[in-house]
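All the exercises in this workshop are built on plain-text protein records. A record pairs a protein's sequence with a compact description of its fold. Backbone structure tokens are a discrete shorthand for how the chain folds in space. Once this layout is familiar, the rest of the handout is easier to follow. As an example, a complete record with its sequence and its structure tokens follows.
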Amino acid sequence: MPRLRLGVALLVPEPVALEVDVLRRACGDPGVGVIAPHCTLVPPVNVREDRLEDALAVLRSAAAATRPITVDLGPPATFLPVNPVLYLEMSGEVEAVRALRDRIFVEPLARALTWHFHPHVTVRDGGETDDLVAAARVLGAYRAEVTFEGVHLLQERRDEAGRRVWRPLADAAFGRPVVVGRGGLELELAVAERLDPEGQAFSEREWAVVDHARHGEVWPRDLAVTARRAGRVVGTAVGWTSGPSAHLADLVVAAAHRGEGIGSQLVARFLAEATDRGCHLARARAEAGGPAEGFWRRLGWSEEARFEVYTLGHDVVQLRREL
């Protein structure tokens, strides 16, 4: 059975991530570009492909039991003489970080460890002792406060240059997912930066049925809502936010579950997250005169523009809704 090389980390949010990368470059850290600034919770571990769903379930469960964590980074320190690593010390809600790590460090994400867990953000891994000591002294005044809003599952891959790099495979926001339909058909709605592999597989499978090519150009996405019922994905909403506007690009519900209000719940959760991000206007597009246009209009969206898209074989209506 093929194995995936995975890890779990708290990724340092912007703008502090940019600051930390500047420090890493100044110190000659070979990891710049290989992995984003982070606090490792689970170091590299080999997980069988058929256990990926279990790993994702662990990530979601741990995140659901965690609230946002605020910590202070700095001052710089080293693990010398035991380990030639320059890092930013972590203080503040460190016990919350430890508790999160304990919830995640279980099968299939558990592994044997060389070092005990010490929450920190690496600035340079490796190097001469004198250089690391000097860098810690020069950077001694650096401090930053960050709040972690979620946790990331990373996968080791090859980039275009053939280097081994670590990139996010899935993320889980802290806090319990929204559950609607209590007492009836319960639906769990979880917001993330991207669809996890289960959600992505569902979306690709369902879009293949409804002919995704008819829905036009693909844009970068940074907001994804996944609906699960009894642990199975039954719908997804994917789009992006930009300044005051949100764009819901893809909305799909499993054919067997249409008519149960899942689409409406996905849209509502997407709009709630967009509002939290500061958006006050949302847009979506649909085939003019088709069922999707009727769906949006029933939810209170109104026509903003209409396009003749000959290459797709149908006209497109752009709808909007004030938030």
